[in-house]
Amino acid sequence: MWPWIVTALLVAWVAMGIWQRYKPLPEGIGRAFTERPAEGLHFLFDETWLDENGERHSRHQIFDEILAMVEQAERLLVLDMFLFNDFAGGEEGDHFRPLSSELTEALVRQKRRHPGLDALVITDPLNTLYGGLEASHLDRLREAGVSVVISDLNRLRASNPLWSGIWHLGPRWLGNTSEGGWLPNLLGPGQVPLRSYLSLLNFNANHRKTLVVDSGDSWAGLVTSANPHDASSFHGNVALRFEGQAALDLLASERPVAAWSGVSFPAPTLPATDAALGKPRLQVLTEGAIRDALMASVARARPGDRLDIAVFYLSHRPLIKALMDAHRRGVRLRVLLDPNRDAFGLEKGGIPNRPVARELHAAGVAVRWCATNGEQCHSKLLLRRPAQSGREAEMILGSANFTRRNLDDLNLETSVRLVGPADTLALRDASAFFERRWQSTPQRITSEPFAAHDDTSTWQRLRYRIMEATGLSTF
Questions:
Q1: Do residues 284 and 306 lie in contact, with contact meaning Cβ atoms separated by under 8 Å?
Q2: Domain check: are 323 and 289 in the same one?
Q3: Who is most buried in 6, 105, 155, 298, counting CB within 10 A?
Q4: Same-domain status, 61 and 161
Q5: Domain of residue 235, CATH code
Q6: What is the DSSP letter of 25?
């Protein structure tokens, strides 16, 4: 009987892995919302640099704005954040800004000021090590009357089907507990059960970073690449704050995720207004719609246009091919990448960016590295600016790295697309941000030439390709 039993188990494993990889997406996922008039635009950034003496300096705006938005909410607040904790990995955390506690206290204070405030926080189960740790700050929010949703990642397609086929056949149904942990928590203090690591191996995430609040008679939204995570407080990030109907689209994008956990919230409305050509327009994008928008933007770039990319991870094969095609047809392409050398005190192997950078450089694309000193170049930004006056510029930014996991309907992701005249203030500010990062000086060291990290081996290139294709990776 053993051959039959083993065969049946293998067939079940393969069948479950295939189903989890290709099962239908949950309703409301992977949406490109309607283009809306861009109102109340404000491009925000976090940046860190070194001076000529090697001293680190920072200018950070994003969480100051998020805290200000929390303090203006009176009726409804919906926050969705991937990393919301004080885990520091292998680093000492005394010098970090305590973003997680600042945000927690701001939410608690606002709920006390306005007891009728309908406040909801959505976050990823990584913040509790998939149920293996107590999260005191989340408990504090619940005690204050803030609803907390831990995203149900089992609804998503499998990023790592080789493991997820086994996971959904057995370990998933064991649940988890914050008592009796015996394995070290590699992300922070405490010990966790084996089941936390078995869940982690699925490599799924609610990777979104969004906020929506009421703003007087209107609504305000914010989409960012930044996390309320203490050890990420020096990272370079970008964000866009906006108002009006686009903020309600952002609110609508969060409704399905909350509904998976049986949580609902009001559906406010605003008078409909049409987006006009020749004026700034904003579009909310989630999951695979972000990929489609990126590919379309690259395809629209004409000879002489400027196409700038600043991203933490770049590994998506169709997008890389599209970028090299754009370079060959005369688009002025610049790619600014994180060197992928460390993360929270843990050494990384330069994957995926170094093999990809070598490929782009060999094709003649201008590549530079962010000059990092423990922090990460964590932005996810594409800027397309026309060579000819009268044509519109375009920007896409948000939570999604340019990878298979982030763009191919495997993670939950949110980005926004801004289109309009090149002199739109938010587009000019984003362009200035990129130029400051790209044009390094001895007095303000922000980036390094490609040769500074041109150390890719054949084994690294092979590992990157295998990891990107199979999902056996953290990027």
A1: no
A2: yes
A3: 298
A4: yes
A5: 3.30.870.10
A6: P
**81/224 same-domain check:** yes
Determine the number of helices (DSSP H) and then strands (DSSP E) in the chain. Answer: 13, 21
Characterize the bridge pairing of strands 39-50 and 191-192: unpaired
Q: Report residues of the chain scoring pLDDT below 50.
A: none
* Structure tokens given for 95: 């010098």
**Residue 337 and residue 252 in one domain:** no
CA distance 465 to 352: 9
pLDDT at residue 472 in the model:
84
Secondary structure (3-state) at 393: strand
Dihedral (C-alpha) 177, 179, 183, 187: value to the nearest 10 degrees? Answer: 70
| 204 and 286 housed in the same domain | no
Q: DSSP characters for 31-60?
A: -BPPPEE-EEEEEEEEEEEE-TTS-EEEEE
pTM above 0.90, yes or no: yes
Which ranges constitute the DSSP H helices of 260-410?
288-300, 317-328, 353-362, 404-407
Q: What is the extent of the structural domain holding 373? A: 282-470
**CA 187, 190, 195: angle at the middle one, nearest 5?**
75
State residue 359's pLDDT score.
96
**Tokens representing residue 66 in the block:** 């998020």
In the three-class reduction of DSSP (H, G, I as helix; E, B as strand; rest coil), residue 196 is classed as helix
334 lies in some domain: yes
Question: Residue with structure tokens 């763009």?
Answer: 407
Q: Nearest-5° angle of CA 39, CA 238, CA 30?
A: 70
Contacts by residues 170-179 (CB-CB < 8 Å, ≥ 24 positions apart): 171/195, 171/198, 171/199, 172/199, 175/131, 176/130, 176/131, 176/132, 177/131, 177/132, 178/128, 178/131, 178/132, 178/133, 178/134
Judge whether 467 and 475 are in contact, CB under 8 Å. yes
Q: Kindly calculate the radius of gyration of the chain based on its CA atoms and give it in whole angstroms.
A: 22
End-to-end CA distance of the chain: 41
Tokens 């939204």 locate to 221
Burial label, 252 (beta-carbon count in 10 A; 0-12, 13-18, 19+): middle
CA distances from 396 to 25, 286, 434 (A): 23, 12, 13
Residue 93 has a pLDDT of: 61
Answer whether residue 18 is part of any domain.
Answer: no
pLDDT for the residue numbered 354: 95
Instruction: Clarify whether residues 425 and 286 are in a common domain.
Output: yes
Q: Among 204, 225, 259, where does a domain finish?
A: 259
In this structure, what DSSP letter does residue 439 have?
Answer: S
E-strand spans in 88-161? 118-123, 147-150
Report the pLDDT value the prediction gives residue 92, as an integer from 0 to 100: 65
Check if the beta carbon of residue 60 is closer than 8 Å to that of residue 24. Answer: no
- CA 365 to each of CA 88, 225, 334, 358: distance values in angstroms, whole numbers, following the listed order: 35, 25, 7, 10
Q: Please answer whether residues 289 and 377 qualify as being in contact, where contact means their C-beta atoms are separated by less than 8 angstroms.
A: no
Task: Classify residue 273: in a domain, yes or no.
Answer: no
